[in-house]
Specification:
single chain, 183 residues, 4-stranded mixed beta sheet, 8 strands, 20% strand, globular
Length: 183
């Protein structure tokens, strides 16, 4: 009889943990918090050949050549003004929230990205992606190995922002920018 009671208690605890865990997971998925997606369209074959294994784990079709051909605008002094490939972006680029709200940021692309708070937008940590007349945003490390990279599929929560506009950028792909305006 004692073994049966221990078994019933054990099953009750197990079912309780399962119910609470699935409710928390559903609440996170159905969250009403504003979201920003870090998007790209990297072709895994050419990006991994150029950058190394698993640099791109997505299903995109933009080759490394196409990526680099779109970094600088041919309409503006092409060696100086970076515009970036349009498939590498933050969506939406502007979010308005109320004080106390959380913004959920998900890397939905195939490459790693950062979502770095910066005082002023500027160049990123990788010189070849910046152009020649930009100044690196001081919050973007000069050493790319020190960046807090959000892996493909990963989500982070940004909360506790003071009222006012907050600039965020990817320190790897510096044209990827967003503003979170806290009202």
């Amino acid at each position: 009889m004692r073994k049966l009671r221990v078994l019933v208690y054990g099953l009750t605890v197990l079912v309780g943990v399962w119910v609470i865990g699935s409710a928390v997971a559903r609440a996170q998925v159905k969250s009403q918090d504003p979201r920003i997606a870090l998007a790209d369209n990297c072709d895994p074959i050419t990006f991994n050949a150029f950058l190394g294994p698993n640099a791109c784990v997505g299903r995109g079709d933009t080759t490394v050549g196409e990526f680099f051909s779109a970094l600088f605008s041919p309409l503006i002094d092409s060696g100086k003004v970076f515009v970036g490939h349009p498939a590498w972006r933050m969506e939406p680029a502007y979010v308005s929230i109320h004080t106390g709200q959380t913004v959920r940021v998900t890397n939905s692309g195939g490459e790693g990205h950062t979502f770095t708070a910066v005082m002023a937008f500027g160049a990123g940590s990788i010189g070849a992606l910046n152009g020649t007349d930009t100044t690196r945003a001081q919050e973007c490390s000069a050493n790319p190995a020190k960046l807090a990279v959000i892996a493909q599929g990963e989500t982070i929560d940004v909360s506790g922002l003071a009222p006012g506009p907050h600039n965020f950028m990817c320190c790897i792909h510096p044209w990827m920018r967003a503003v979170v305006d806290v009202e």
